[in-house]
Amino acid sequence: MLVEDKEDAFKISLIIPVCSPDQIIFKKLIESLLDQTVKVEILLIDSSPNNMALQAPPNMRIIKISPYEFHHGQTRNMGVEKTDGDIIVFMTQDALPCDNYSIEKLITPFFEDKRIGATYGRQLPRQGAGAIEAHSRLYNYPPVSHIKSHEDIPRLGIKACFMSNSFSAYRRSAFLDVGGFSSNLIMAEDMHIAARLLLKGWKIAYCADAMVYHSHNYTVCQEFKRYFDIGVFHSQEAWIQETFGKAEGEGKRFILSELRYLMRHNPFLIPSALLRNIMKFTAYRLGKMEHWIPLWLKRILSMHKNFWLNPHESQGHKFVCK
User: Fold this and answer.
1) Given 34, 96, 136, 219, which is the most exposed site by the fewest CB atoms within 10 A?
2) How is the chain split into domains, by residue range?
3) pLDDT at position 319, please?
């Protein structure tokens, strides 16, 4: 745990992008944040449609932006500019801390090693999650903490730059050292900055004891759109796979792990899992070929439609929060 003088010496800012959240889950999130063992400056960036705008909860600031203005990296960069924490914590609106120590445990590595530039916590399946949904979290977020550095890239491959802004923290000096988040990404701004941090000599800590409940029960169609966008990301940021290794090998390991997990917990879901994986692979390959696909079709295939919208088209366009 943090000693009191260290906590007082560092200011902690928490930034949460918000778009038409589930009111029950969001209320639980706010209550949990106010009960955390460390004091944090909380900023909400609300991109909900005008008729769904949030009221600022007590002890929190809120910034309202138009839905078309939201972008994964650019919006979070704005949050960093509007806060002054030495440590910057990011969460998503549907991640719920597992206990009152989650943020404290997430930021502790910064006080133990000055070369740690970022940390991310463990995401557990939400209550009521099915076996396919649960396995995804258990596979990507194991129960053992570890620290990743540039020297680990040959061993870990693309997993070296894996991290998630659903529950993460950055040392401000490290964040600024690499120029913050890229403002022109369809998604995966967290992986993008993690790669740049490692290449610049910073370390990334995975904190398995800093836990939140966070998972998604995506439909097959939603997963298709999401993996199309992942393919687009790797197509447009090809240097990541050139430097760290291709994602396909990790995908094969995930499928084998999923099949073993389902055999133990719910073998009747194996056909559904196989169908989903075929759809995900197809979508990913399409995304990697996005430069051959017309813009109108990319808007249909993509989950993050704002990315494909030209600025002059923004006004009057109907958006769906994702």
Assistant:
1) 219
2) 4-213, 220-313
3) 33
